Structures are given as structure tokens and as C-alpha cells.
From TrEMBL:
GO terms for biological process: iron-sulfur cluster assembly. InterPro entries: GcvT/YgfZ_C, YgfZ/GCV_T_CS, YgfZ/GcvT. PANTHER family: TRANSFERASE CAF17, MITOCHONDRIAL-RELATED. It comes from Cellvibrio japonicus (strain Ueda107) (Pseudomonas fluorescens subsp. cellulosa). NCBIfam families: ygfZ_signature (TIGR03317). The lineage of its organism: Bacteria, Pseudomonadati, Pseudomonadota, Gammaproteobacteria, Cellvibrionales. This is Aminomethyltransferase folate-binding domain-containing protein.
Amino acid sequence: MTTVATHAISEPFFCHLPNTGLLLVEGPDAAKFLQGQITCDIRELADQKVLLGAQCSPKGRVLLNFYAVQLQPDTIALRLPRNILEQAQISLGKYIVFSKAKLRKADDAYAIIGLHSSRLDDFSNILGTIPHEPLTWIDTPQGIIWRLDETHMELWLKSLTALAPLGQSLAEVASLRTENDWNLAQIQRGITCITPETYEQFTPQELNLTLVNGVNFRKGCYTGQEIVARLHYRGHAKRHTYRYHLTSPQAPAPGSLIVNSAGVNIGHIINIASSGNNQFELLACVTDEHINEAQLRETGEKLQQLPLPYAIPSADDKTNAE
């Protein structure tokens, strides 16, 4: 693996996430309905847990992935990119007809703020109580606060008018950054995010969702479950998601084709964010045997592999040998 200097923001920062929204599943059958449609086990949302999950097509291809929070016994929020909310309503809506549940976009009901610090407790002086365990949440007078990991939290602010004064308070302990910086941090965590450009292109295994607890193989049936389980127990994924560095005058779009040194298609870009002047980091789904040959098809610019915070079993031996 080539050594490349990476851009990691060490100082505390906060940012508004205007391109992130919420889809609410509401009604007495909300949990039952979702249990039959998504890869995570909704029963584990008890005790204010947050789950990473996905909805798959009958062929086991990921339509969307999300973080789920059970706000009320009959209300579950799915955190998604705002530009895929309508597709999420359509893809889930096809199966909700006979359930006592409904789908409702709540993207304008909350202002979503990302918070980063190596000492997240420093934000408690402004926000009050904060969750201390990763993938847990609490309900506060200001809104929902949930913790992604040791250094990242999100606040779903209930009052849009409170955004400006809260920003002034947060600026006393952290710098204001852009949504790009938040997206870069998620790329460095190795967590993919499906957008309209990558809709229904990949299996959960190819997105590494099985490596980051995004799939529960004990929960029972859901749409696409048979294909996903067969690949897990009997097959072997030949592609996974890898993190790369790119030097380019322009960012390629999600879904852009990646080829090997012979010009053969080997994968696609999933997510990308700027890490500096003409510098980018990205997540791309690539065939395991060609991870060190990746380059953009359109320009021929080469991608340099960067480490992920978790292991990809099928590629470890090859990567470590180089």
C-alpha cells in the first residue's frame, strides 16, 4: 500500500448538514414493517440504540443505507442523504400498503448538525447531557443527540430558529467547518453512503456493511435476505469498498467508473470529499484482485490506496505482502 499523507482534522469543529434528512416511519406497525424490509434487527433499537442498516432489492442490491433511531414506540427515524429521500419513500412505500404505518419526510423539521472532537464532553457545557457510548442517543430539550463513535456526534435540532444562536455558542469551543469536512470524516471511517448515482448497484458485502455491523444474519427474513445470506454463507464477495486518495483538478462524481491498468472496468466511486487543494479522498467498490491498479476511466488519474479502520479479510494477505 502506497503511503500518502492524509488530511485529518484534529481540532474540534461543528458544521450544519443541509444535505442530510430524515424519513419517519410512523404507526403501530412501524417496527414490524421495517423488520421485514431492512438488514438490521429493529428489536435492537430498544434502550436508545442507533443501528446502521440498509434496504435491499429482491436481488440483494442495496437501495439505500441509513442510521435508524426509534424516537417513539411507533416512530422510527431513518437518517439519509436528502437527495435520496424521495426514492426511499418509493422503495419502502411499495411494501407498506397493507401495514398500519406510513412514511413521512421530516427533512425540514430538524436542522442536523455534526460535531467533532477528541473530547466530545467539552460540548456538554453547551448541550447539557450527551450520550457516552457509540451508537446511542438521548432526547434533550434542544433535540436528539446521538454518538457515532468516540469523536463524532450529531444533533438533530428541533427548532430551526435556534440554529443561529446555537452556532454562536458552539463557536466558543469549536471552529465552524463545512459539510465536506464531515463527509471526509465519514469516508475515513469507511462508512459508505448510497446516493441516487449508486442506487441498486452493490450488495451489502461489497459496501462492507457486513464488516461494520450493518447486517444482522440472525434476524430472519427481509426483502433480499436470501441472496445476502447465500453470499455470506456459501459464496465469497469478489469486490469490497476501499479508501483511496486522488490528486485531480476536479472531483469525479459518485458512480464514476474505475478501471485497471489494462482499461478494464473494475469498480465505481461511491463517495468522495475534498481533503485540500486538488486533493480528494474517496470510497470505491473495487474488485479485490485489482485494488492496487485503480484509476479513473475518464482521465486515467491513478488512485492511491489508504487504510481503513477495519480489516477486509479477502484482501489482507495481498495488501500486507506489498
